[in-house]
Amino acid sequence: MAKIDQSEPYHYGLIKRAIEVIDSHDGKQLSLDDIASEMGMSAAHFQRTFSQWAGVSPKRFQQFLTLSHAKNMLHNNFTTLDTAAEVGLSGTGRLHDLFVKWEAMSPGEFARKGRGLTIRFGWFATPFGQALAMGTDRGLCGLAFSDDCGADAAWRDMSGRWPHAHFVENPTALEKWVGAALNQSGDTKLHLMGAPFQIKVWEALLAIPSGHVTTYSEIAHAVGSPKAVRAVGTAVGRNPVSWLIPCHRALRKSGGLGGYHWGLPVKRAMLAYETARLT
């Protein structure tokens, strides 16, 4: 699949608007000409640009974006996390063709709530909307999507998790890691900050292969707390590094999307994109 260079925010904005156009029609199939017209582009140019990013045509992508697609994924692309662990898909492994290395902060570091820690941050354009990235010297510690909740709310949410940290705006320091995530190539590191139970849940999420899904109850079983489905859902929602720790791959048993901290349209778009790359 052709890669879209992170240095071209035009393309990220274009793909974001295209997803919004498709999603706004509630599953109604739009023709290529209809979408291209709303985008102010020729059909040929739009088809070529969109297919470079998604790996499939806009028509095919629409099929993956429908609400019923989640149920189809649960039927055809369900991942049993016990099996995933047996084949080595655990905390350190492949994710979206991207090698993710992660480490958790110590209990003492967590208890200090960021005291003595410098966290660099920056805003980045993505096909899923504007993203707020945060990172320490050891890796990304935050990735939030702000289009649904707003930039101010995203900032309050993320910075409030480490109230005693020193925040420095420095997107350049994060470009390599964020670029690896957005361009689906290269290495990135994660520095996870959470309570022990949350870390377990996030590790289980890392075991779900791209293009596959699991359920909240399956995650609860995988972390050794089969009755703690509600607590698992809370921990999934508190995932600080969205997309890379793929909380969007957790569904209800019924195949319903469940919640998503940064908005359900973003969750649908992420699942559609990953399924498109799997086909």
Q: Note the run of SSEs as H and E.
A: HHHHHHEEHEEEHEHEHEHHEH
Distance between the termini: 12 Å
Percentage beta strand: 15-25%
Q: Give a short account of the largest sheet.
A: 4 strands, mixed
What is the percent of helical residues? 40-55%
Apparent shape: globular
What value does the Rg take, in angstroms?
Answer: 18 Å
What is the count of β-strands? 9
Our count of helices gives: 13
Strand order of the largest sheet: 5-4-3-6
Q: Would you identify the regions where 5 or more consecutive residues have pLDDT less than 50?
A: 1-8, 83-98
User: Pairing-aware structural class of the strands and helices?
Assistant: alpha/beta
- What would the average pLDDT be, to the nearest integer? 80
List the helices and strands and how they pair.
Layout lengths: L8 H15 L8 H8 L3 H12 L3 H8 L2 H9 L4 H6 L6 E3 L2 E7 L2 H5 L6 E7 L6 E6 L2 E7 L5 H9 L6 E4 L5 H9 L3 E6 L3 H11 L7 E2 H7 L6 H9 L12 E2 L12 H15 L1
Parallel strand pairs: 2-7, 3-6, 8-9
Antiparallel strand pairs: 1-2, 3-4, 4-5
How would you describe this protein?
It contains 13 helices and nine strands. It has 279 residues and is of the alpha/beta class. It has a four-stranded mixed β-sheet with strand order 5-4-3-6, with helices on one face. Strands 1-2-7 form a three-stranded mixed β-sheet. Strands 8-9 form a two-stranded parallel sheet. It has helices spanning 9-23, 32-39, 43-54, 58-65, 68-76, 81-86, 107-111, 151-159, 175-183, 196-206, 216-222, 229-237, 264-278; strands at residues 93-95, 98-104, 118-124, 131-136, 139-145, 166-169, 187-192, 214-215, 250-251. A hairpin with a 2-residue loop joins strand 1 (93-95) and strand 2. It starts with 8 loop residues before the first helix and ends with a helix. Helix 11 (216-222) packs across helix 12. It is globular.
